Amino acid sequence: MKTLYLSAVVLILSACSSQSNQYARLEDGGWSQTGQPALHAVRDNRLHELMDRMDSLMHERFMTEQQLDVERRKYSRQIGEAARNLAANVEIMIARMPGLQLNAAEQTTFLALATKLREEMRQLQQLAEQNHIDAIPVSLHEINTTCTSCHALFRKLEAR
Among 47, 80, 95, 125, which is most exposed with the fewest C-beta within 10 angstroms? Predict the structure, then answer.
């Protein structure tokens, strides 16, 4: 059994060493035998990005509770900031309403949805500021529902 294992290791090592001479220049971004850049040399930047992402994911997996808490607070701040910016953009949407040429009933509906969206954004901002991470997905679902409802009713009017 031990002999079988050693022979397998020797076989693998000999295969690797015979290929290392043939493709030695590829490690420094050289050319393959075809005269074309090796695929891994062409995709080098993308490979580095992917490897960095894998390292990051592994790092996240082994974070301490304190490190995880710091990351959660950071993401909460980012969510809160995005919610604050989106709430401010509701005012811009309301200001654009006259350009949509809505009748009275449509204006009432549009304002009701815009007001609801602004309130949902403020609630999301509060949840984020108070680090209520578990409640954020529900809040995001409500916001998405409001946006989808408004788009279903009024998106086609923007094209006019």
Answer: 95
- Answer whether 110's CB lies under 8 Å from 90's CB: no
DSSP per-residue letters across 125-136: HHHHHTT-GGGH
What element of type H or E holds 2? Answer: helix 2-22
The SS3 assignment for 5 reads helix
Look at residue 31 and give its three-state secondary structure: strand
Q: What share of the chain is helix, strand, coil (3-state, %, to 5)?
A: 85, 0, 15
Output DSSP code: residue 24: G
Q: Is the pLDDT of residue 114 over 90?
A: yes
Res 141: pLDDT = 92
